[in-house]
Amino acid sequence: MSGAGGIDHPVTAPESPEVWDERAEEWLTADADGPEDQALADPRSRPGPSRTGADPVKALMHRHHDLCARAVDPLEIAAGLEAHGITDRTAARFRHRDVFSLAEEMYARVPRDGEPSPAPTPVAPPRARADWVLLTLLPGALGAATVTAVRLTHGQARPIAAAVGALAVLLALRAALARGPLSTTHPARPTATWTGWLLGYALLGDGLLRAALSGGPDSLPGGGPDSLPGGGADGPWPLATAPLLALALSCAPAAWCAHLLAVRARRTLSSSRALDDFATAVKPLLLAAFAGYVCALAALTAGTAALLHEPAAHPQTLTLGALLFLARLLTVHGFTRAPALVLTATAAAEATALACVFVARLPGCAWLATPTRALVEAWGPAAVPSLACGAAALALLLHAGRTLTRASAHASQEEPW
Fold first, then answer.
1. How many domains, in total, are found in the chain?
2. Cα–Cα distance between 108 and 116 in angstroms, integer?
3. Same domain, 346 and 211
4. Are residues 259 and 389 in the same domain?
5. Which residues 6+ apart lie within 8 Å of 325 measured at CB?
6. Which of 7, 150, 324, 378 lies 20 to 30 Å from 33 when distance is taken between CA atoms?
7. How confident is the model at residue 187 (pLDDT cuts 50, 70, 90)?
8. Same domain, yes or no, for 237 and 160?
């Protein structure tokens, strides 16, 4: 259902209604992806086979018996059909102008214990609630408190304050992702390790790479004689705390951008009459949500850099933030494979750039550091994470343009928030 590199290829429908009954079983069960699709494709979840070749719509209803039986409106059926690869062109072979029209007939023909089919109810967009609004503010607030505590403490109290603060921010971030528009009920692939690496590189990576190319590091992070309290922008291995603080503060705008996208997409879904029209209308909403988050993160990056007296690391912070936002947005809507693959590849690219510099110190291996050294000499240490995260974010943006513009990605469902 999701992924990169051709994971979402649509399957080919039978060429005409006359041959539907003979080929539908193979077509509908070929690419079941996800719990709902597997349930629909499981022969044990449907009644026994029947000969309905004269009525192709009835045959389609037979294949999607469970979907039709539990649907509360035609939009759910339309989204389920689209998830199986049925397009407006396929619907035309059933003598319908689009998938929505086909779904309306299927919904109207479902037996409901002798009762007439209820009138379709409009899709209710999710609402903003105080609990998730406050939870999205918590990581940024605790992040700011942690940075303040680290800079005001000295001696052994400083690492303790940093460790306690980092744990508090991690727990707050977990709570923010458990409720609201950034939460998901879909089984997620494990990406915490790679996300942690990317955030750790934003804090330590640029300084470590510069020190490694100079023959170091010869001290702990932020341990130079001229470093600022708690690690700053100076010293042989400086810490970059401003990017992490900006990313923590950006949880709130990320949640609001995702929320506004969900609201507008649901309203567009209620008024759309064709899948192509819906995709055309949702794509600008997706780009607007993405641009809104990037603009908010840019402002936060500038503000935190000014307050902490650090260089404004816009390229690496904006690309990393864009990557994490898109990965979460895809995961929320059930597309988990592509974000996992892209995050893993990005972390591997950054780790490879660092590892090559250290391995190059072995006899006969100096050539391994040549690409990284040339890149750093041309554009600075920030070029490594900027290029890696930028390329990954672009790949996810293109993927989101194909997957998050589907009706099935915004179908009516019971929201956990």
1. 2
2. 9
3. yes
4. yes
5. 254, 257, 290, 293
6. 324
7. confident
8. yes
- The verdict on 236 and 92 lying in the same domain is no
- Whether the predicted pLDDT of 49 surpasses 50: no
Mean pLDDT, range 334-341, rounded to an integer: 92
pTM greater than the 0.70 cutoff:
yes
Q: What is the DSSP string of 9-21?
A: PPPPPPSSGGGHH
**CB 294 within 8 Å of CB 304:** no
Instruction: Identify the CA nearest to 13 among candidates 88, 79, 69.
Output: 88
Residue 284: pLDDT above 90? yes
Q: To which residue do tokens 């035609």 refer?
A: 74
Range of the domain at 21: 17-108
pLDDT band at 359 (very low <50, low <70, confident <90, very high): very high
Residues 282 and 350 placed together within one structural domain of the fold: yes
- Token pair listed for 352: 């490879």
Residue 369 DSSP code: G
Cα separation, 409 vs 417, in Å, equals: 17
* 171 vs 87, higher pLDDT: 171
Task: In whole angstroms, give the CA distance from residue 409 to residue 313.
Answer: 34
- Same domain? For 320 and 205 the reply is yes
Q: From start to end of 59-154, where are the E strands?
A: none
Q: Exposure of 28 by Cβ count < 10 A (0-12 exposed, 13-18 middle, 19+ buried)? A: buried
Measure the CA–CA gap between 2 and 400, rounded to whole angstroms. 9
Rounded mean pLDDT, 213-239: 60
Asked, for residue 164, whether it belongs to a domain, the answer is yes
Q: At what angle do helices 275-308 and 241-249 cross, to 10 degrees?
A: 140
